[in-house]
Design a protein that fits this description.
This is EGF-like domain-containing protein. The chain is an all-beta fold and 132 residues long. It has no helices and twelve strands. Strands 1-2 form a two-stranded antiparallel sheet.
């Protein structure tokens, strides 16, 4: 009887992969662990931190981090953006005004937001401050 190839050097799967066997052929199968993405191929699995590969598929208006328990990649919208998707499909939308993102963290003088949603924004400001 041969030793289980997964018990020897993790089946050559690498430190961020799980080794298992195909039920029919008993061939080694390497699967990246949570929080890691295969940047290699099906036969040459290379597991890299998901957040370093295309920002974890979070998009340019989100940051990628890892769940402290599961290590799964988590997308969080950046300041000024709101998740209009779901917890598992984060879609960050910003508030736009004249084609520019309105940054609510930097105050504008004599400026008052009256109504705010991702579809509509009503702003009251004196004519002297209309230039953005």
């Amino acid at each position: 009887m041969f030793p289980d190839s997964c018990t020897v050097n993790n089946g050559d799967c690498g430190s961020y992969a799980t080794c298992s066997h195909d039920a029919m052929t008993y061939a080694v199968i390497c699967t990246c662990e949570a929080g890691y993405t295969n940047t290699g191929s099906a036969t040459n699995v290379v597991c890299k931190d998901s957040c370093t590969v295309n920002n974890g598929d979070c998009g340019s208006y989100a940051t990628c981090s890892h769940d402290a328990i599961t290590n799964a990649a988590i997308c969080t919208c950046k300041a000024g953006y709101t998740n209009t998707g779901s917890a598992t499909n984060v879609v960050c939308k910003g508030m736009m005004m004249s084609g520019r993102t309105l940054n609510l963290s930097s105050p504008l003088p004599c400026f008052q937001i009256v109504a705010l949603s991702t579809m509509e924004i009503v702003v009251h400001m004196p004519l002297a401050h209309m230039m953005l």
